[in-house]
Design brief:
By secondary structure, the chain is α+β, with helices and mostly antiparallel strands. The protein contains 4 helices and 7 strands. The strands form 2 sheets. A 4-stranded antiparallel sheet has the order 1-2-3-4. A 3-stranded antiparallel sheet has the order 5-6-7. Strand 2 and strand 3 form a beta hairpin. The chain starts with a strand and ends with a helix.
């Protein structure tokens, strides 16, 4: 089995969502910062506050531009998943890398979700629920996500049937010995 990548449209979706963050988060915060800087009347002088405000705004904008332009291609390379007969493996992260292995026998249920920003790009998320956690394979083509969900649910059902059969066989053994 080989590791698979998320859909290529994920890069565009990540950029779009970060542009929304820039428009609705960073820019209003920058305007408020500048208004506060202009309103400050200190002994040091308004000039220092204004320069500090502009430096803060410039830093936030540069950081957000990195998020928009540089990170999506790197994220795309780093985000991988593999669905093996006995487990699911998910690798992700740029600075903080994680490699998660989920045994099929631990899965309780699987669901496909689609967020508001995923819909225009025909992307979905597969949510894998275990007794102690929830893992996600994000930014998959919706048809691929549905197919993965269906395959995993079938595997989970087989594991449940095998467990029930083993439990029933074990339960009937003491009765036969008695």
């Amino acid at each position: 089995m080989e590791f698979q990548r998320v859909d290529k449209k994920a890069k565009t979706k990540w950029r779009f969502s970060r542009i929304m963050g820039l428009i609705f988060g960073i820019l209003p915060a920058s305007v408020i910062t500048m208004l506060i800087c202009f309103a400050i009347d200190s002994d040091v002088g308004n000039g220092v506050a204004i320069v500090a405000g502009w430096c803060g705004v410039a830093f936030m904008v540069i950081a957000q531009l990195l998020q928009i332009l540089v990170y999506p291609p790197i994220e795309y390379i780093q985000w991988q998943y593999m669905i093996a007969p006995d487990r699911i493996e998910i690798k992700k992260g740029i600075f903080y890398r994680t490699h998660t292995v989920i045994p099929i026998s631990r899965i309780q249920h699987v669901a496909v979700t689609q967020g508001v920003l995923q819909r225009p790009f025909n992307l979905s998320t597969v949510k894998i629920h275990t007794a102690g956690s929830e893992m996600e394979i994000q930014e998959l083509n919706t048809e691929v996500a549905e197919e993965i969900c269906s395959r995993l649910q079938k595997r989970v059902n087989v594991k449940v049937e095998e467990k029930q059969a083993a439990d029933a066989a074990q339960a009937s053994q003491p009765e036969q010995n008695a």
